[in-house]
Write a sequence for this structure.
């Protein structure tokens, strides 16, 4: 019996996205990666996002360099950040809300 690829519902909430990514990693055989593996992949994706932004801004690039779409690279960065959060059992939605409450009390210039 083959298992179907997990389905992501339309307009998913952040908790739904976290659960979906966890299921996809299991489906694709990456459920046993370490936090270090996922953090290194996150750094790699941030580098690709930087290249995409450079290209978007019209900065020179090597002729044989790959093209990167900003939207896809942002999605990859978010995906990998969620992978790290999942590995550490962090509820991203709660973490963002708690951090924003701290930020509201900071002085901004």
């Amino acid at each position: 019996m083959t298992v179907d690829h997990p389905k992501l519902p339309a307009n998913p909430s952040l908790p739904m996205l976290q659960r979906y990514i966890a299921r996809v990693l299991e489906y694709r055989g990456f459920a046993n990666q370490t936090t270090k593996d996922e953090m290194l992949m996150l750094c790699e994706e941030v580098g690709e996002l930087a290249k995409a932004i450079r290209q978007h801004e019209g900065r020179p690039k090597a002729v044989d360099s790959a093209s990167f779409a900003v939207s896809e690279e942002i999605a990859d960065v978010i995906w990998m950040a969620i992978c790290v959060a999942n590995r550490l059992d962090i509820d991203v939605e709660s973490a963002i809300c708690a951090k924003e409450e701290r930020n509201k009390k900071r002085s901004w210039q």
